[in-house]
Input
Amino acid sequence: MTEDPFREFAAYYDRMIQEEPDRVEFFRTLFRKHGVKSVLDCACGTGNDLIMVHNFGLQVCGSDISKAMLAQARKTLTKHQIEIPLKHLDFRELPQHYDQRFEAVLCLTTSLPQLLEEREIGKALKSMREVLKPKGILVLTQGLTDVQLKTHVRFAPAVNTPEFSRIMVVDYYHEEYEVNVLDLGHTQDNDEFDVYGVRYRILLRDDYERLLRKTGYSRIEFYGDWNFKRYDKEESELLIVVAHR
Ligand SMILES: C[S@@+](CC[C@H](N)C(=O)[O-])C[C@H]1O[C@@H](n2cnc3c(N)ncnc32)[C@H](O)[C@@H]1O
Output
C-alpha cells in the first residue's frame, strides 16, 4: 500500500462505531463453538474488536498496516486500561512476524479487499492460513453483497445526529469500487465538511470461495447476518465468511 487511505480518517473512524449486541453474540458463539482461546485481528484498525475479544476472556493480538489506525487503537486501549500487543505490519507477511499460532484470525469490515489485485489477496489468505492452528478459523466480513452490487446502492447514511452526519457514497467501477465518506458537522464548534475515500476490489461470495479453496482452506461457511442466517445472494446485506484452515 503506497498511501494510507486512513491517515486523515483514522481520528474520526470511530464516529460510526455503534453498539451491536448481535455482532458481539455472533463472535462469542462462533469462538465457543470452535474452542477458540487465542485470536489475531490482523486488520485491527482502531482496536474495537480487540477489546471485544479481550472481554470474552481470550488471548488477543492486533496488527494493522496503518500507523494512524494503530495510533487510535493505542489510545483506545490506554483509555480502557487494557494491554494488548500491537504490531505495525502488512497482513501478507504475518508468519514472518508471529511465531505463535492462533485458533482464529480476524480480518473484518472490508479489510482484505483493500488489496486490489487477486494475486496479492491470494498472498494475504495464505499468510493468514499459516498463522492458524490446524483446526483454526479465518473470519472475514464486508458490507458489499451480491444484492448491493446488482442494485448499485450508492448512498448510505452511516450517522445522522443533531451534531454530525456521515454519508457513504459509493462509486462502482469494473473490478473495483470506491467508498467516499462525507462528514458534515452541524455545530458552531464543528461546521466542517470532510471527505475521505477508500478504494476496494469487488469480491463477492463466489470470489471468496474460489480464492480460499485455491489457497488451501477446507470448509467454508457464508452467513448473511449476525444470527448465522445463511448468505443469500438475493437478499443478504452483509457477507460473513468463516473459512477453516
Ligand atoms: C475499514 S478498516 C476496518 C478496521 C477494523 N477491522 C474494523 O472492523 O473496524 C480496514 C483496515 O484494514 C487495514 N488494512 C488494509 N490493508 C492492510 C494490509 N495489507 N495489512 C494490514 N492491514 C491492512 C487498514 O489499515 C484498516 O485499518
Remarks:
- The mean pLDDT is 95.
